[in-house]
Design goal:
Structural class: mainly alpha
Helix content: over 70%
Strand content: under 5%
Order of helices and strands: HHHHHHHHHHH
Mean pLDDT: 85
Number of strands: 0
Distance between the termini: 46 Å
Length: 207
């Protein structure tokens, strides 16, 4: 249905870097689906909105929508959505408070088989959060695992994003030549999303 399509669109817009468009699609999906009977599509929309809240460092919103998604998914017997809801709440924890990495990594691993694309998306943002907070070990571990997952599932966009974020982490460690080499290789790719291009250019200019 249209609500499910809008939730999916908001996920794809993550690669455009436009949070306002992502939020608009996510909230429109909820507006369409909430008046209807409880459904798997609504559970996905709640989980999607929880993920957006986590990206925006809104831990209260992530917890609120994550609980809605998890409770509805469990009531409907969908363990994948309930696992994704737990992952979004765990991501919000590390984004807002920089703790409970073990809990995040456990939740992340539960998503790698049933929903690799969602796991890769959250893995990229988690690696970025770690790099911004100078947590080099968490960034390295998270980005290595995300890059491998993306490669295994042919998720080229997320594999490249993991490389871009690894360049951010290299820059934070003072490894300017390494950061420059990574971004130069990425910018040489024939097709890049706006987010790939923007992040790569920013890192390259800073290096």
């Amino acid at each position: 249905g249209r609500g499910n399509d809008l939730a999916r669109l908001s996920q794809l817009l993550c690669l455009s870097g436009s949070l306002s468009e992502i939020r608009e699609s996510a909230e429109h999906a909820l507006a369409l689906l909430e008046p209807l009977e409880p459904s798997i599509q609504l559970a996905w929309a709640y989980a999607n909105r929880a993920q957006l809240a986590g990206i925006e460092y809104d831990s209260a919103g992530a917890a609120h929508f994550g609980r809605k998604a998890e409770h509805l998914a469990l009531a409907l017997g969908d363990t994948t959505i309930s696992s994704w809801a737990r992952l979004t709440r765990a991501f919000s924890d590390i984004a807002a408070n920089q703790h409970n990495w073990d809990n995040f990594e456990t939740a992340w691993r539960t998503m790698t088989t049933p929903a690799a694309e969602h796991a890769a998306m959250v893995g990229v943002f988690a690696g970025f959060v770690a790099a911004l907070h100078h947590d080099h070990e968490s960034a390295r571990r998270c980005l290595t695992q995300t890059g491998q997952l993306s490669s295994n599932h042919n998720l080229i966009g997320f594999e490249l994003l993991a490389q871009v974020v690894s360049a951010v982490a290299s820059l934070d460690r003072g490894e300017h030549d390494e950061a420059q080499a990574i971004t130069a290789e990425i910018l040489g790719q024939p097709t890049l999303s706006p987010l790939h291009h923007l992040w790569s250019q920013v890192v390259s200019a800073t290096a």
